[in-house]
Each structure stands twice: as structure tokens, then as C-alpha cells.
Amino acid sequence: MLPESELENASGSRENDMADKYKTKHELIEELTQMRERVSELESTETELKQAREALRESEIRFKAIHAHSPIGIVLRDHDGTVVHSNRSALDMVGLSPDVGVDELPWSNLFDDPFVPQEAKDCLAQGKSMRYEQEMPFDFAECQRLGLYRTEG
């Protein structure tokens, strides 16, 4: 038999155990009903979470397909301005091979790109989200002069 102090720790609380012994049948049924309702709520929440995860997965697949096949050059950056992915159209626009790794991209860091307006750099440096579009035509002669983009041919 356990000493009294260990008995209290093992059972959570000796007072709660005693209180449970003196609950009426109605109180126990009510408590059981509440527990069953909570289990049902948790099961419902779990189902909703599974559905949300599936919807997110499907959305991600659609986004990746749009990104990969877009005729518009798309460059995705992280919060530090570093390129995490670039689609084929963006590479084609500056004559880069699709075999170029993300870390080898000449525009790998937004803050080093002289063609990105300072206002955009300041906004991102403050941790704010923004949308930036580079208008074409792009000054490829200036890129070559500055040695920004290695191109094939």
C-alpha cells in the first residue's frame, strides 16, 4: 500500500477522489454527457483540420502548376529578399539556363539589385509585405555593363 503523500500524487488529489465518491448518479451522468460532447467536438475539429489540410495541399499543387507554367516571369523571395524559387519564364527572360541553381541566380538578393527601387527595399527591410513588378523593357545593356547577369551565348 502507498504512503498517503504518494497516494495523493498518484490519484491527482485525494479531495477530488472523495468528491467523486459522493457525486449523485445524476451528476455523474451529466459529467459523462459533457465528456461525450467534448469528444464529439474534438472529433469534429479533427475532421475540419483534415479537410483544411487537404484543401491546402490541393491549393499548393495548383499554385505550383500556375507558377511553373506561367508565361510571366515569377521570382519568389523569402523575408530577407533572397530568391527561393524562380520559374522558367523568369530565367528565359534574361537568357539563363534552367540548370542554374537558385543560389547562382544573378538576382539572388533583392537588396543587391540596382533595378529594384529603394522604396521597395526599404519596405521589405522593415518586414512589411509588398508586391513589386518590374516593367519591361528591361535594360539588358545596363545589366551587361554592370556584370549582373551571366547569360548563355
Describe the protein in words.
- By secondary structure, this protein is mainly alpha-helical.
- It contains six helices and two strands.
- Strands 1-2 form a two-stranded antiparallel ribbon.
- The termini are far apart.
- 4% of the residues are buried.
| Widest β-sheet, arrangement of strands | 1-2
What structural category arises from helix and sheet content? mainly alpha
Low-confidence spans: none
What's the total helix number?
Answer: 6
* Strand runs, count: 2
* Cα radius of gyration in angstroms: 30 Å
Mean residue pLDDT:
78
Shape field: elongated
Question: Secondary-structure blueprint of this entry?
Answer:
Blueprint lengths: L3 H7 L3 H8 L3 H45 L5 E3 L5 E4 L1 H6 L24 H8 L14 H7 L7
Antiparallel strand pairs: 1-2
Structure summarized in a few sentences:
By secondary structure, this protein is mainly α.
Offer a few descriptive terms:
two-stranded antiparallel ribbon, 6 helices, elongated, 153 residues, mainly alpha
